[in-house]
């Protein structure tokens, strides 16, 4: 039997759902795979609960017994347990938590993250993290950084390992922007009403300009580019933002909300320019020929995979030497706590099975 100890950092939407999913599959995993998963540490930004393991009632225990902590307290707690393999799970939305990665790795932890920050900072940090992982024989899995539970990074890695040359990746990487342009392109509603509908259904960030700025799509594109070995920074991504400067920057959310009708003319003009049987899509576009990375609004034939996109789905078209004319297409829900937690859990199990096979990288 292989025992995996987890320290779960972040108990918001994804973290709580993940703990719940682990509790549900625990006994089956032990029976069928001979892998025991334990969660001796659960933490948010200020408090942690230390135990031997956490059971179904972890929320109550956390409320009653959690205490202020440092990362060293977590490392110490793991050292006091008979830990075979340790994984730190970063399901925070924090810019700061990644500062602990190096300490955790050097103290025996592998990392599984939904948090994108470590992969989107400057390239020096990205490279340094990989060097530290290699030097300490540790793994870092982050499938949910792009497309939530969809197997995007794994597919790209598999293609590269099998000698495929990836030439282009193009797709809709944002659920909210997928919804907005799927509705706007084919319906009759003016743009501001489609946007309001998306906000009212909770599909956008609280300030929808965070989605409309294109930055989140750009971050995902950057992660994919780096996966292909392209040495780029976020500033290298050419972004066509969907909000004009005067409605962003110093304009408050309230000021923006009462002026969203100003967006109508811009997008109606784009819609009028569409050729027959075409629709608008806001895409991330990576071309390896010139290492170009763009986030832009394009016209797409209705009959294409991107043109047929519905609801809030994400869609990734991957072009390679083999998938030249017809791309390899991955489509499905690209956000949401359940699919994201499932993706994180899938990374944890993949890593556990790897550790079970090689039985190296034991906690030190
Ligand atoms: N939700 C999705 O659909 C989705 C999809 C793909 C990826 N993701 C990624 O998954 C991550 C989690 O998302 P979420 O929706 O679960 O966020 P969330 O609901 O805002 O929860 C964030 C959690 O992280 C904790 N946290 C913040 N800073 C921390 C720190 N320095 N150390 C330890 N814990 C810290 C917060 O604790 P406090 O309450 O104390 O602040 C909170 O428990 C994010 O990085 C997000 O980008 C989410």
From TrEMBL:
Family the entry assigns: Belongs to the homoserine dehydrogenase family.
GO molecular function: kinase activity
Protein species of origin: Winogradskyella aquimaris
Superkingdom field: Bacteria
Needed co-factor(s): a metal cation
Enzyme class, broadest EC rank: oxidoreductase
Domain Aspartate/homoserine dehydrogenase NAD-binding: 10-143
EC identifiers of the protein: 1.1.1.3
Keywords: Amino-acid biosynthesis, Kinase, Methionine biosynthesis, NADP, Oxidoreductase, Threonine biosynthesis, Transferase
Reactions it catalyzes: L-homoserine + NADP(+) = L-aspartate 4-semialdehyde + NADPH + H(+)
Protein's name according to its UniProt entry: Homoserine dehydrogenase
Pathway(s) of this molecule: Amino-acid biosynthesis; L-threonine biosynthesis; L-threonine from L-aspartate: step 3/5; Amino-acid biosynthesis; L-methionine biosynthesis via de novo pathway; L-homoserine from L-aspartate: step 3/3
Domain Homoserine dehydrogenase catalytic: start-end pairs: 151-349
Keyword GTP-binding: no
One Pfam family matching this protein: Homoserine_dh
SUPFAM superfamilies named in the record: Glyceraldehyde-3-phosphate dehydrogenase-like, C-terminal domain, NAD(P)-binding Rossmann-fold domains
């Amino acid at each position: 039997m292989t025992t995996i100890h987890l320290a779960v950092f972040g108990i918001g939407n994804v973290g709580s759902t993940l703990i719940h999913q682990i509790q549900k599959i625990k006994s089956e995993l032990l029976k069928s795979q001979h892998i025991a998963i334990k969660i001796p540490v659960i933490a948010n930004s200020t408090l942690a609960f230390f135990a031997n393991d956490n059971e179904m009632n972890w929320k109550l225990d956390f409320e009653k017994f959690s205490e202020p902590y440092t990362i060293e307290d977590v490392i110490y707690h793991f050292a006091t347990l008979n830990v075979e393999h340790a994984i730190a799970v970063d399901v925070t939305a924090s810019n700061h938590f990644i500062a602990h990665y190096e300490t955790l790795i050097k103290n025996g932890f592998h990392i599984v993250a939904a948090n994108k920050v470590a992969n989107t900072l400057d390239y020096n940090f990205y490279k340094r993290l990989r060097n530290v992982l290699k030097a300490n024989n540790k793994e870092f899995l982050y499938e949910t950084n792009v497309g939530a539970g969809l197997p995007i990074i794994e597919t790209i890695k598999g293609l590269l390992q099998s000698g495929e040359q990836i030439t282009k990746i193009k797709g809709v990487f944002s659920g909210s922007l997928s919804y907005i342009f799927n509705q706007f392109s084919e319906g009759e509603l003016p743009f501001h009403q489609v946007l309001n509908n998306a906000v009212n259904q909770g599909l956008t960030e609280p300030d929808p300009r965070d989605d409309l700025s294109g930055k989140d799509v750009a971050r995902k594109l950057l992660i994919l580019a780096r996966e292909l070995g392209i040495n780029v920074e976020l500033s290298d991504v050419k972004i066509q933002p969907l909000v004009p400067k005067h409605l962003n920057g110093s304009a408050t959310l309230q000021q923006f909300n009462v002026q969203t009708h100003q967006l109508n003319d811009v997008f109606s003009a784009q819609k009028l320019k569409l050729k027959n049987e075409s629709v608008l899509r806001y895409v991330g576009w990576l071309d390896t020929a010139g290492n170009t990375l763009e986030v832009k609004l394009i016209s797409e034939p209705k009959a294409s995979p991107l043109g047929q996109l519905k609801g809030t789905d994400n869609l990734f078209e991957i072009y390679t030497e083999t998938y030249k004319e017809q791309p390899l297409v991955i489509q499905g829900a690209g956000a949401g706590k359940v699919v994201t937690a499932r993706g994180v859990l899938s990374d944890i199990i993949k890593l556990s099975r790897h550790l079970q096979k090689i039985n190296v990288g034991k906690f030190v």
